[in-house]
């Protein structure tokens, strides 16, 4: 690890330390690291509009206990990382979504997922890591696929969780789930945002495993840490202006494990299967009963599968 970086104790998690890393491309990423610096590194990449704290502490701790150093971070435009101010014309998301579903190219977003993958490549360099295991969830899984195809020399193995390669004609997300993610809350005050977050958790989460009290506490913590809805929309536009990753998947030569929940109503399991099919030698595992989230119930199983994959 780069010894010049200043780390402080994380205000959220006893076993993690936080720092801000200047990538040198106009973006600063806020990161947290935990575990023994001499152990192999796993970099966790989160999904659309999701701060790094969406990687549950229990999950990070499980990977650390399996013998890894764990790094999670806020993507650009979210949490405590740099926000991107967009000067260009407003884009029509509905029109872009239609073209995206058919596999037609889109452009005009302030940045795309290739730029976000470049952020992670620069982060690896800045941290002084020779090679890292990459584990991406949802949009973070899309960024991870680009990273593995473009920067194979920086990557050991690839883990993907409830993600997609956005190839044309995959079954679209259920509309209610998608629009809950990019929709507007009824009010902009803390309670309005927390209620909206709760609705999202219920719609995309694992049926029967949503803990109401935990969900409310998490939503409050995230709101107080950072609230930046413009960033969520810009990340969504980044996905729409990146399009299909199918060609890139064919270039990936890293050992890859794809996990997907059987009850995922945001990205149905066929998305994960399409990714595993496109990447040579990739393994696919369906997690029975899991949605588009990581409830404590499933964490021992998920962390065990990824730890085994990264070690084997």
UniProtKB/TrEMBL annotation:
GO terms for molecular function: triacylglycerol lipase activity. Keywords: Hydrolase. InterPro entries: AB_hydrolase (IPR050471), AB_hydrolase_1 (IPR000073), AB_hydrolase_fold (IPR029058). SUPFAM superfamilies: alpha/beta-Hydrolases. One of its GO terms (biological process) is glycerolipid catabolic process. It comes from the Bacteria. Pfam families: Abhydrolase_1 (PF00561). Residues 40-293 form the AB hydrolase-1 domain. This is Alpha/beta hydrolase.
